[in-house]
Amino acid sequence: MIDFRSDTVTKPTEQMMRAINQAELGDDGRVNSDGKGEDPTVNKIEAMAARLTGKEDALFCNSGTMANLVALLTYTKRSEQIAVDAFSHIYQSEKSIFMEEYFGRKPVFYESDTRGKPILTTVDMSIKKGASLVCLENTFSHKGGTCLSAEETNLFCERAHTYGIPIHLDGARIFNAAAYVNESVEALVALTTSVQFCLSKGLGAPIGSMLCGSKAFILKARKVRKLIGGGMRQAGIIAAAGIEALQNLQWIEEDHTKTLLLFSLIKAQPNLFLLNNVESNIIIIDLTPGELAAIDVARAFDKRGLQVKVISEKQLRMTVHKDITEQDIKRASIHMNTYFTAIKEK
Ligand SMILES: *Cc1c(COP(=O)(O)O)cnc(C)c1O
Predict the structure, then answer these.
(1) Of all protein residues, whose CA lies closest to atom 3 belonging to ligand 1?
(2) For residue 268, what pLDDT is reported?
(3) What is the whole-number distance in angstroms between the Cα of residue 305 and the centre of ligand 1?
(4) Pocket of ligand 1 contains residue 196 by CB under 6 Å
């Protein structure tokens, strides 16, 4: 099977398994007067994440969902409004922050263009409606892994700063954005108040996300994480794999090259399907022009040894990662072209 469902399907490398075995451990739940836990490996990855993003401090979380939730809970109270894009991962997939029976914050929507770039007039409107926090996503998952530059991010942040409200960036794949726009992660998050990035997407770690922000923010966030059950003990065993993951940033560029190769090999057939413009490691196949249903195409691909993700009735997503080789890409494209050609000739 060639697994294009997500860049989370990667298995830890042998080096990660060795690092896990050799990690120096302590109880991360016992916090000293400086607000840091007792696990030296967790402290090490938190310092690395802070340095990478240019923020004062960082907090190790078990998932991106947990990191985003901790951030949003830290900034806001029940019934307060949070400005999000309606297609964002936070709103579409994480949800609990806005569910009345869970955390009861209210979404207020701004809009983004097809590339995921926020339309600033709508950002203004969302803030004027009463949002006390704005969220941004880079790369923008549901728009096909599109990437914002530092300049585009800064324009958005400056709007929020005008009103004196904080900005949380969901940077699950921020390294993909940094590679595409050819800027540092630090530059991309310079004006955001906080940022979350995943170690388990593209970088090969089995578990983990980093929430980064000011020292005061992380101190509060650590308490929130504990309250919602996200505190961990000898978490150095997973942080050790995360530290290894941060040595693998070169994989991201390789993923982009492989994605462009796949993109160029699949012949877009306007009467059958359309492709989004590829910027990072995600390709969305939109079947809207034709009669095909996404689920049927996914089943047919599955029989040919290709796993893809159905994201709507008419859309499939393919995500490239380190465990997919150039050879796999070529094989996959042959299967896909054969399938679509047969449909066309029917
Ligand atoms: C995957 C993802 C998350 C959540 O990460 P998990 O580790 O799966 O909880 C958040 N935001 C975006 C944009 C993502 O792609």
Answers:
(1) 64
(2) 85
(3) 26
(4) no
Please enumerate, as own/partner, the contacts of 302-305 that have beta carbons within 8 Å and a separation of 24 or more.
Answer: 304/335, 304/339, 305/1, 305/2, 305/331, 305/335
Q: Residue 87 corresponds to which tokens in the numbers above?
A: 């297609």
Distance CA 51, CA 193 (A): 15
Q: Determine if ligand 1 sits within 6 Å of the CB of residue 170.
A: yes
Ligand 1 and 63: CB distance under 6 A: yes
Are the C-beta atoms of 209 and 64 separated by less than 8 Å?
yes
Ligand 1 atom having least distance to the Cα of 137: 13
Q: Which amino acid is at 222?
A: R
Phi, psi of 339 (to 5 degrees): -60, -50
Condensed to tens digits (0 to 9), the pLDDT of residues 113-172 reads: 999 999 999 999 999 999 999 999 999 999 999 999 999 999 999 999 999 999 999 999
198 lines ligand 1 (CB under 6 A): yes
C-alpha dist (Å) from residue 312 to 208, 293, 295, 317: 27, 9, 9, 9
Q: Closest Cα to residue 59, out of 231, 205, 302?
A: 231
Q: Is ligand 1 within 6 A of the CB of residue 64?
A: yes
Closest listed residue to residue 332, CA positions, set 294, 301, 286: 301
Q: Give, in order, the Cα–Cα distances in Å from 3 to each of 8, 11, 183, 262.
A: 10, 12, 29, 14
On the 0-12 / 13-18 / 19+ scale of CB atoms within 10 A, 161 is middle
- Residue nearest to ligand 1 atom 5, measured at CA: 64
Residue at token pair 């954005």: 177
